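Page 42, continued from yesterday. The earlier attempt failed because a stray header line got pasted into the input along with the sequence. Redoing it now with the clean sequence only.
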Amino acid sequence: MGLNEKPLSTLHEKASYDLADFEVPTGREEQWRFTPLSRLKGLHDGKAVAEGHVGHVKVDVDAAPEVTVETVGRDDPRLGKVYVPSDRVSAQAYTSFEKATVLTVPREAVTSRPTVVTLTGAGDGAAFGHLLVRVEPMAEAVIVLDHQGSAVYSDNVEFDVGDGATLRVVSLQDWQDDAVHVSHHHARLGRDATFRSFVVTLGGDLVRLSPSVSYTGPGGDADLLGVYFVDAGQHLEHRLLVDHSRPNCRSNVDYRGALQGQDAHAVWIGDVIIRAEAEATDTYELNRNLILTDGARADSVPNLEILTGEVTGAGHASTSGRLDDEHLFYLQARGIPYDEARRLVIRGFLGELVEKIEVEEIRERVMAALEAELAR
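This time it went through. Structure tokens are written below.
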């Protein structure tokens, strides 16, 4: 740890529902040093709200019959119990949304099909949202978040996974090229709960997602997987935090990205904290970036803070580099043209993770989108 660095446990201490508790970021803060603030269109400094140009993001829910869907006001006491805003943008979203969507999976229910939440942006102004997914003890559900259209959008998503429950989430960022999206996803896991998250980020001008996980009892199990493809001029940022504060819990993080084009920029920050009381923790985080052209840049920072000596396993790794010439030569030596060999290597690199998406329609859609990117 350098002289000017702070431990992870202090980097994420501030949490408040009150916007006034957060200063307007300048870009020098650790949380914001990679984000081009000028491209946030006022989400970080209040100008998006002060100008009064209200955007619109339509929320459609195609729910499994076992799932209860509610649209509630901001005074609903269930909101904000899982996640407390940890920066100014998330606090702005929390104080600015008008209606929230609440999905509830009742105790011991096993949903018969995925519940798809489609968020479609329309309009130039800023829009704010809030989603709460409650999976009661021993229940199982699959949730798909599908982001489309054009928007300047900030939201908070809360996943409350009860004791012994299982929640699988796929979040697809398939925005149009001019969209700006800043979002916090937080999962709170009960005793012996299971959480599987798969994030796919393809569209948008600037997308910054901050998935996080915390545990309220032993036996919690979390997998955070992600795939992103960054084109010229895009800024796609993923900032993850796994806070191990209970014993005998597990987490695994695996994010992979490919970048092509001038000023394509990917940022991945992976923070894992193992607190003193979190004995027998088993955790690993990995980020890999494939840089396909000159002019693209990947910033990857894995961080691991261990405050106990009694861990089952803890590790992290990060790699960023070009295509492997040996792989390409191997394929070309067997009669495969260079362009096709290149596509095969990239497809294999990303497809290994994409195959883990459990919703077939989304898996096929993502593979088709990646094929379209490679065809460029």
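Notes: Helices lie at 8-11, 47-50, 88-96, 325-332, 338-354, 360-375.
Reminder to self: strip header lines before submitting.
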